[in-house]
C-alpha cells in the first residue's frame, strides 16, 4: 500500500475522533440520570466486565473542556459522540419526565465544540438503553413499544439540539446490540441460552426480534427527521453498521466464496437490506432461520421507504476468512453456518495481530469492503470508527503506550485504503473518525484494552497524547492538500 500518487483525499473530507457516552462520561448519578442496562450489567456479581464499570470512566462529564482542548490540539474538524438516553429521559419512555439537567449538559458540549470550530456528529444510541424500559416491557424485545419510545427520544433530541447539530447517527452497531446482548450474552443486557453466566435469554429467537426492533426504531427516527425537521434544520442522518470483510478460506472453492458472501449478509445485509434498500432480509438468512426471522408487514415496508438516509456510517476494524461447513447449522448459529478463521488454507494470516484477540490489521480487505458496500448500498460512506490497540499495550506503562508506532501504521494503511477506494474503485467516502479520542471503558473487556489516541491514567484521570494523535493530522492535511 501507500504509493503517494494514489493517496489523496477530497479537500472537503471530514475527519476527527469518536467516543460513546457510557465509555467516557462517568457521573452516573449526576443530574438525575437514570440507570441504563450497562449500569446494571457492570454491577452484576460475579462481574462480567472484568470488575469494571462506568461510574466514573474518564470523568468526561466534568472534564469535557480539557478533552475538547485535545481535539483542538489534534486539529480535528469533527467529533462524534453519543447521548445517554437515560441522562435526557431518566426512565426512557414517551410519557416519562425529561431531565433539563441532562439536556443542558449536552447543550454545553455542543456549544463548546462549535465555539472551537469543531462539527458535532451525534449518535442517539450507543448501547445504553434506559433500564426503565428494559424493566417495563423487556426493552428491545418489544418491537411495538421500543420503536415508539425511541421515536419520542429522537424527536426530543432533534427539537432541542437540531438547531446546532447537523449530523445524526441513529444507532451504533445494531448487530453487536442484537448478537452480543441477546445471543452470546457478553454485552448488556447479557441474555443468552448458550452463556453459562446468563440466567435468562433465548439465543435461537431473541436476537432476531431485537434486530427488527432496531431496524424499525431507526426507521421511525429517520422518517420523523425527514418529515418534520429536515427542511427547517437541513441536516444529515444515517446509521453506523459494523461488519468485517470476509475472504474465502479457499478461494478456489466455490462453497467458500459463497460462505464469505453469506457471512457478510448475516453481518451487514440483515440491517442494510431494509435500511438502505427498503428490501426484505437477505435470502440466505431466510433459508437458514425460517420462521425465526420476524417478517415486515406492508405498513412496515412503507415506513422503511419513508426513512431514506443520507449516508452509510461504517465501523471497520478487521477482516476474517470464512470456510463453509458441511453439517447443518444449529438453532444458535448467527454467522450463516461458516467457520471464521484468521488464516486461509495456505496458512496466510489475514493481517498483523493487534492488542486485542479479535482484531488483525487488514487494510487490503478494508479497500475491498469499501468498494463492496458503496456499490451495493449506494450512499456516501463515512467511516464512523476505525482504530486498534497496539500489541501488548494493556501491559504497558504510560511512556511505552504513548510511543504507539503500531497504531500510526494501522491508521496510515487504512487511510491509504480509503484513498485507493475513492480514486481507483469509484467509491464515495466522505469522512473518517478514529476510534477513539481517549482510552476508555472497553465494555466487557474493562479498562485493559486501550483504543485511544490519548493515554488515560485511570488512577489520576490525567490524559497524555500518544504520538498517533498528532500523526493523524499530518496524514489528513498532507492528503487533502488540493491534490484531487
Ligand atoms: C465497537 N468485535 O465495538 C464499538 O462501537 C465501540 O464502542 C468499541 O469501543 C469499539 O468498537 C472497539 O471495540 C465492537 O468483536 C466491539 O468484532 C467488538 C467487535 C466489533 C466492534
List the helices and strands and how they pair.
Layout: E1 14-18, H1 21-24, H2 37-42, H3 60-74, E2 78-82, H4 85-88, H5 100-115, E3 119-125, H6 131-137, H7 143-161, E4 167-172, H8 174-182, H9 206-228, H10 230-233, E5 236-241, E6 245-248, H11 254-277, H12 283-289, H13 298-306, E7 311-315, E8 319-324, E9 338-341, E10 352-353, E11 360-361, H14 363-377, E12 381-385, H15 398-401, H16 405-425, E13 429-435, E14 454-456, E15 463-465, H17 467-479
Parallel strand pairs: 1-2, 1-13, 2-3, 3-4, 4-5, 5-7, 6-8, 7-12, 12-13
Antiparallel strand pairs: 8-9, 10-11, 14-15
Helix pairs in contact: 3-5, 7-9, 8-9, 9-11, 9-13, 14-16, 16-17
Bound molecules: 4-nitrophenyl beta-D-glucopyranoside (PNW).
- Number of strand segments: 15
CATH class call: Alpha Beta
**Tally of individual domains:** 1
Summed up, the helix count is 17
Q: Please describe the biggest sheet, giving its number of strands, its sense, and whether it closes into a barrel.
A: 8 strands, parallel, barrel
Radius of gyration: 21 Å
Bound molecules: 4-nitrophenyl beta-D-glucopyranoside
CATH superfamily: Glycosidases
- Which fold does the CATH topology refer to? TIM Barrel
Please tell me what the overall shape is: globular
What strand order characterises the main sheet?
1-2-3-4-5-7-12-13
Please report the distance between the alpha carbons of the first and last residues: 19 Å
| Strand percentage | 5-15%
Q: Which stretches of 5+ consecutive residues score pLDDT under 50? A: 1-5
Helical content stands at 40-55%
CATH architecture: Alpha-Beta Barrel
Amino acid at each position: 500500500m501507500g504509493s503517494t500518487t494514489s493517496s489523496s483525499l477530497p479537500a472537503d473530507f471530514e475527519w476527527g475522533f469518536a467516543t460513546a457516552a457510557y465509555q467516557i462520561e462517568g457521573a452516573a448519578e449526576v443530574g438525575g440520570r437514570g440507570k441504563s442496562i450497562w449500569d446494571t450489567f457492570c454491577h452484576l456479581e460475579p462481574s462480567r466486565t472484568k470488575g469494571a464499570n462506568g461510574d466514573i470512566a474518564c470523568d468526561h462529564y466534568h472534564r469535557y473542556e480539557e478533552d475538547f482542548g485535545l481535539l483542538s490540539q489534534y486539529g480535528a474538524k469533527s467529533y462524534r459522540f453519543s447521548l445517554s438516553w437515560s441522562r435526557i429521559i431518566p426512565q426512557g419512555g414517551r410519557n416519562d419526565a425529561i431531565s433539563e439537567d441532562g439536556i443542558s449538559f449536552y447543550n454545553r458540549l455542543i456549544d463548546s465544540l462549535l465555539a472551537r470550530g469543531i462539527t458535532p456528529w451525534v449518535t442517539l444510541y450507543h448501547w445504553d438503553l434506559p433500564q426503565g424500559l428494559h424493566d417495563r416491557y423487556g426493552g428491545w424485545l418489544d418491537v411495538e413499544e421500543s420503536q415508539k419510545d425511541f421515536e419520542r427520544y429522537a424527536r426530543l433530541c432533534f427539537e432541542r439540539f437540531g438547531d446546532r447539530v447537523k449530523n445524526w447517527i441513529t444507532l451504533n452497531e445494531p448487530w453487536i446490540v442484537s448478537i452480543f446482548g441477546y445471543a452470546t450474552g457478553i454485552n448488556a443486557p447479557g441474555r443468552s441460552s448458550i452463556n453459562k453466566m446468563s440466567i435468562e435469554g433465548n439465543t435461537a429467537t431473541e436476537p432476531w426480534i431485537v434486530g427488527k426492533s432496531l431496524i424499525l426504531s431507526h426507521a421511525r427516527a429517520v422518517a420523523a427527521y425527514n418529515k418534520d425537521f429536515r427542511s427547517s434544520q437541513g441536516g444529515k442522518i444515517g446509521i453506523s453498521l459494523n461488519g468485517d470483510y470476509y475472504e474465502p478460506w479457499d478461494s478456489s472453492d466455490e462453497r467458500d466464496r459463497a460462505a464469505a458472501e453469506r457471512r457478510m449478509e448475516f453481518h451487514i445485509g440483515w440491517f442494510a437490506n431494509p435500511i438502505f434498500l427498503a428490501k426484505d432480509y437477505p435470502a440466505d438468512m431466510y433459508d437458514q432461520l425460517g420462521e425465526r426471522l420476524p417478517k415486515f408487514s406492508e405498513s412496515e415496508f412503507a415506513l422503511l421507504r419513508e426513512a431514506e438516509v443520507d449516508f452509510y456510517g461504517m465501523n471497520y476494524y478487521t477482516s476474517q476468512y470464512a470456510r463453509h461447513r458441511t453439517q447443518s447449522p444449529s438453532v444458535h448459529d448467527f454467522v450463516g453456518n461458516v467457520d471464521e478463521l484468521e488464516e486461509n488454507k495456505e496458512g496466510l494470516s489475514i493481517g498483523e495481530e493487534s492488542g486485542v484477540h479479535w482484531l488483525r490489521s487488514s487494510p487490503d480487505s478494508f479497500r475491498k469492503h469499501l468498494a463492496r458496500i458503496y456499490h451495493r448500498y449506494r450512499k456516501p460512506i463515512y467511516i464512523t470508527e476505525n482504530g486498534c490497540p497496539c500489541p501488548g499495550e494493556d501491559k504497558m506503562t504510560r511512556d511505552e503506550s504513548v510511543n504507539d508506532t503500531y497504531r500510526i501504521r494501522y491508521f496510515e494503511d487504512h487511510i491509504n485504503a480509503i484513498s485507493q477506494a475513492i480514486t481507483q474503485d469509484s467509491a464515495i467516502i466522505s469522512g473518517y473518525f478514529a476510534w477513539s479520542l481517549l482510552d476508555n471503558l472497553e465494555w466487557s473487556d474493562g479498562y485493559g484494552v486501550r483504543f485511544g489516541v490519548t493515554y488515560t491514567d485511570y488512577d489520576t484521570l490525567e490524559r497524555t497524547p500518544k504520538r498517533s494523535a498528532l500523526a493523524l493530522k499530518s496524514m489528513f492535511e498532507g492528503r487533502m492538500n488540493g491534490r484531487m
